[in-house]
Automatic annotation (TrEMBL):
<dbReference type="Pfam" id="PF13456">
    <property type="entry name" value="RVT_3"/>
</dbReference>
<dbReference type="InterPro" id="IPR044730">
    <property type="entry name" value="RNase_H-like_dom_plant"/>
</dbReference>
<dbReference type="InterPro" id="IPR052929">
    <property type="entry name" value="RNase_H-like_EbsB-rel"/>
</dbReference>
<dbReference type="GO" id="GO:0003676">
    <property type="term" value="F:nucleic acid binding"/>
</dbReference>
<protein>
    <recommendedName>
        <fullName>RNase H type-1 domain-containing protein</fullName>
    </recommendedName>
</protein>
<dbReference type="InterPro" id="IPR002156">
    <property type="entry name" value="RNaseH_domain"/>
</dbReference>
<dbReference type="GO" id="GO:0004523">
    <property type="term" value="F:RNA-DNA hybrid ribonuclease activity"/>
</dbReference>
<feature type="domain" description="RNase H type-1">
    <location>
        <begin position="25"/>
        <end position="136"/>
    </location>
</feature>
<dbReference type="InterPro" id="IPR036397">
    <property type="entry name" value="RNaseH_sf"/>
</dbReference>
Length: 159
């Protein structure tokens, strides 16, 4: 099953953690990109003004993280999300009859741009910093991206 501690990617790879948080009719998306020693290279957040299902929140957070990671030049990534249903959809390339499936197809389009992209399922505990960033994103009025830092106070010790 999922890992219980955050693990760095291999040398030459980058780890993209994504997460979503919901509050009433808003969804906060968060993403953090780290290198093989755990240093934050990029982080970001975005608020969506929609009410959607949990799986679709996570799918949109993953698409958000992958798009920005690609745009920043990261080409070999491990994508981690604590949504097991999403990891199953992405690794088995299975289909389901849902609105989430349309966004999953968009993820595959972006994934094909990378040299390599693998999907992993960590326990929620490993993704708490990204979850906190997603929660904070509920207050954002625009997409915010930070290079080589994360605005969340736990980044320095909670990977």
């Amino acid at each position: 099953m999922g890992s219980t501690t955050w693990k760095p990617p291999p040398t030459g790879w980058w780890k993209v953690n994504t997460e979503a948080a919901i509050a009433e009719r808003h969804v906060g998306l968060g993403m953090i990109v780290r290198d093989n020693i755990g240093d934050v290279l990029m982080s970001g957040g975005k608020k969506l003004d929609v009410a959607i299902q949990v799986l679709e929140e996570e799918v949109r957070a993953t698409l958000f993280g992958l798009r920005y990671a690609y745009d920043a030049g990261f080409r070999q990534v491990e994508l981690e999300t604590d949504c097991l249903n999403l990891v199953t959809l992405l690794t088995k390339k299975s289909n389901e009859n849902s609105t989430s499936q349309m966004v999953v197809k968009d993820i595959f389009v972006v994934v094909n741009l990378f040299e390599a992209c693998i999907f992993k399922f960590p326990k929620r505990l490993c993704n708490m910093t990204t979850y906190s960033l997603a929660k904070d994103s509920l207050m954002f009025d625009e997409v915010l991206i930070w290079m080589e830092e994360c605005p969340h106070r736990h980044c320095s010790y909670c990977r």
